[in-house]
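Worked example 2:
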Amino acid sequence: MSVWLPTSPCTPEACSGHVGRTASVPHAVLRLTGAVALILLGILGAPPVRLLPARPRHAVVRAWSAALVRAFGLRITVHGSPGPPGGRLLVANHISWLDIPLVAAVLPSRMLAKSDIRAWPVLGRIAARAGTLFIERDRIRALPATVTAMTRALLDGHRVAVFPEGSTWCGRARGTFRRAAFQSALDARVPVQPLHLAYLRADGEPAGAPAFVGDDPLTASLWRIARARGIRAEVTLLPRIPPGRYTDRRDLAAAAQRAVAGRAPERTTRSAPPGRPTGPSGQPTGPSATDKDSAKRPAASVHHWVSSSPAAASSLRTPS
């Protein structure tokens, strides 16, 4: 492994335990069966869906992605305004492999993902057919070509989604936003839209089951999520950073990180469809992201903060 690769202090043992109700084994198996059926449907349906015009194609992707998240028993709540359509760079904190269908359920986009995912059984094939841009994280020399591909996609009017922490964190702490991906937004002169993702228990505290951290096997993560009950997946669409506000990718990355860290979502127990976001008041409720993400083992202090506060509803509709 290259020494420059970002790492997280989070581990499955420290972060991924589920507190609360659990589903029975037959119920969990039923959930997994439903998820597998949706994945197979996605593989079969991907070629004709890609031929559709953008608006109906995005509608199908949103519906399929939302159904996949809900197949695991998670409810989806969306806050904030997505703004007008068009090319933009979406940047979000990274907790789980579930982040990918969760973002797609709200704002369908071309994802930037590590090349390892392409080798995943079934899911890798879906990701490739969905137009995912893959990055070889252990080859720094491949980075310029990846940024160029992202810039082209943005210039073509696509939304490109990136998890700039470069590694998954448990949701109670966050890593530093790596700046390389932000160069594509500067080169294409498109807005950057920060997103805050959270998986919450019924009491508003972060749920451990969805966290896909450390050396957690994918099969163990799938089973753990299928067994958990009462988890809500929450997406907060934060105000876009317009092109031209920052001319340096370091400053742009720092601004996006501050938005994600400081504009934590308000909490609500009401579930909203992915197409109808609700609006936060934007009050900061938590600390900034941690300054370093190179720790090799968990520190108890990074897992203590949680946030919970109420939210108001809105009828804004997610664009295609």
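Confidence is low (pLDDT under 50) at residues 265-320. Residues 25-50 form the longest helix (26 residues).
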